Amino acid sequence: MSDRIALIEAGGTKFIVGVGDASRQIHARTRIDTTRPEETIPAAIDWLRAQGGDYAAVGIASFGPLDLDRASPKWGHITRTTKPHWSDADIAGPFARAFGCPVAIDTDVNGAALAEWEWGAGQGTNSTLYLTVGTGVGGGAVVGGRLIHGLSHPEMGHIRMPRHPDDRGFAGHCSFHGDCLEGLAAGPSIIARWGASLSDLPADHIGHDIIAWHLAQAVQTFQAILDPARIILGGGVMGTPGLLDRVRIRASEAGAGYFAGDPSRVITSPALGSDVGLLGALALALRAAG
Amino acid sequence: MSDRIALIEAGGTKFIVGVGDASRQIHARTRIDTTRPEETIPAAIDWLRAQGGDYAAVGIASFGPLDLDRASPKWGHITRTTKPHWSDADIAGPFARAFGCPVAIDTDVNGAALAEWEWGAGQGTNSTLYLTVGTGVGGGAVVGGRLIHGLSHPEMGHIRMPRHPDDRGFAGHCSFHGDCLEGLAAGPSIIARWGASLSDLPADHIGHDIIAWHLAQAVQTFQAILDPARIILGGGVMGTPGLLDRVRIRASEAGAGYFAGDPSRVITSPALGSDVGLLGALALALRAAG
Questions:
Q1: Strands A137-143 and A146-147, bridge-based pairing
Q2: Contact in structure between B264 and B254 (CB atoms under 8 Å)
Q3: CB < 8 Å from A in window 166-195 of B
Q4: How close, in Å, is residue A154 to chain B by CA atoms?
């Protein structure tokens, strides 16, 4: 029997498809544009077949929101999304039918949280939260060795937030909630306020402090609810030089020493780099198999 | 061997001490004022000895913050508290030495969350959050059958919050964080703003909507991070007539249909009534016993 695992990082712009194994090697990979489900998913299956087609499992780390209720007829489907053509798309089913093996699916950020906890910046801890701050804000968390799920997967970008005193005029950029975390800290909210991405603003621009301050408030909320040993901040916005340290300083001020974890040690960068998507899919598949 | 379990609900004002068993019967109980550790804890032990002294386990649901790290020499101690005499007090140790049996200890709200999930308003769900809104605000959550712990227990009263537009003048009542959830919604914050408890304010007083609105924002944050099947709101402030329904309405507005759970079904009252403290201690003891 094969020990090869088919890996799918399903994003709103592109699918990264790969072949890996339990030793964490990724043997091959390709990129497929995300167009329509009836094009993108068969293209991914064709590529995986061309690699040999014999897989022990399929791991999918997908954009969402997803139906992850195993008892639901829509398990493994995207639910409702603003992305054209993808609402109600069945992601898991076509791979299960094509390869006749177990399919594990969860959100991209849950996959990243699991992979960073198993092999990356959260290794050896009892609790790790992964937050990506980019075009949107999303997060997942491993607590006591398991990913958190309630009625569905977390939507951590949509926590409620206080407002920086110098940022009160901005309504927020989330089409559902206005000034939730995503509405205040994701890339489009930065461009909406200041006309450029954070990394393109001068180093003394107030935007740096406003974004760091909002992320620090989010860190306090995560500490109050989960008290994670690691809070890993990734995504394009976090690539801004100096931002991670600004968040640490602001989070220390906000928490006022109240929580068990010191923000300067708890808050950290991802360790798995650009492979985190495929490694997330791998971690999900290994977890489901094991 | 005895199947009797010693139960301690350790509060800042009083200890309720009882004797129960796995059938959820509570056979006897007493109340001991919380004065100093060297008075209150021996009085609890003496009473438990007078009931027979032969216990299979001790369950303690305590005020906090607590050191719950089993590897720490201070496991089972209160850490730092504003309550005089109780910082660094060993709660679990004296009971373990007195009765020579396993001792389970966790926060009162974690105990309540576990008991409500096992036997109360969260029964049959995969995820239940319990929040008490009284002199302080505290919460615990069961996810996938287990209480959430990170570096320590949750401190859910200290999540960050947006501000109701008609409540901007109030600095908040939390001595650590000002206008965190506890600083905006606990009983003392209500008295600080309006000179009376919420239940004593006229039914058309704006305080009802301001408190409901803040609790609804907290509900959204809980949904975004944990998406619990039940969010149980207890504590003295929640006894205010009409408040639960106001929170449901405001939470539905805030969430804008984004989360899997409908706030009108997710948000509910506790089912275990005034026994929740002792039943929490019982649930913790039974859980630890396996």
A1: antiparallel
A2: no
A3: 176-177, 179-180
A4: 5
A107 touches chain B (CB under 8 A): no
Closest to B240 measured CA to CA, from B219, B265, B269: B269
Helix (H/G/I), strand (E/B), else coil: B6 = strand
Written as six digits, the tokens of B22 are 């796995």
B149:A176 CB<8 A? no
Chain-chain contact of B225 with A261 (C-beta, under 8 angstroms) = no
ipTM of the complex: 0.97
Residue A85 identity: H
Return the pLDDT at A289.
Answer: 77
Instruction: For residue B31, give both structure tokens.
Output: 């109340």
Domains and CATH numbers, chain A: 5-107+274-289 (3.30.420.40), 121-271 (3.30.420.40)
B147 vs A216: CA distance, rounded Å: 25
* pLDDT tens by residue, A224-268: 999 999 999 999 999 999 999 999 999 999 999 999 999 999 999
Place of tokens 């091959």: A28
Pick from A159, A176, A217: which is nearest to B256 by CB? Answer: A176
Contact between residue B214 and residue B164 where contact means Cβ atoms under 8 Å apart = yes
Tell me the mean pLDDT in the region B61-71. 94
* Mutate: best of A143, A163, A181, A231, partner B, most B CBs <10 A: A143
Task: Indicate the residue type of B12.
Answer: G
How far apart, in whole angstroms, are the C-alpha atoms of residue A181 and residue A218?
7
Beta bridge partners of B140: B130
The C-alpha angle with vertex A126 and arms to A121 and A130, in degrees rounded to 5, equals 45
pLDDT at residue A53 in the model: 87
Q: Containing H/E element for B222? A: helix B206-225
Which of B152, B153, B217 is opposite residue A160, by nearest beta carbon? Answer: B217
The answer to whether the CB atoms of A149 and B144 lie below 8 A apart is yes
Q: What are phi and psi of A170, to 5 degrees?
A: -90, 130
CA dist A50 → A28, A46, A53, A59, A84 (Å): 11, 6, 7, 18, 29
Within 10 Å of residue A91's Cβ, how many Cβ atoms?
25
- A193/chain B closest Cα distance in angstroms: 19
Who among B127, B141, B225 is closest to A156 (CB)? B225
Residue numbers of B between 242 and 271 with CB closer than 8 Å to A: 254-261, 266
Cα–Cα distance for residue pair A1/B200, rounded to 1 Å: 71
Chosen from B66, B159, B219, B265 to mutate, greatest number of chain A CBs within 10 A: B159
Q: What share of chain B is helix, strand, coil (3-state, %, to 5)?
A: 40, 20, 40
Amino acid B110: pLDDT: 98
Cβ <8 Å between B157 and A224 = yes
What's the mean per-residue pLDDT of chain B?
Answer: 96
Model confidence pLDDT, tens digit, residues B163-174: 999 999 999 999
Average pLDDT over residues A33-58: 97
Kindly report the length of chain B: 290
> Is A194 within 8 Å of A209 (Cβ atoms)?
no
Q: Cα angle vertex B286, ends B284, B290, to 5°?
A: 110
CB contact residues (below 8 A), chain A span 108-147, against chain B: 126-127, 139, 141, 143-144, 146
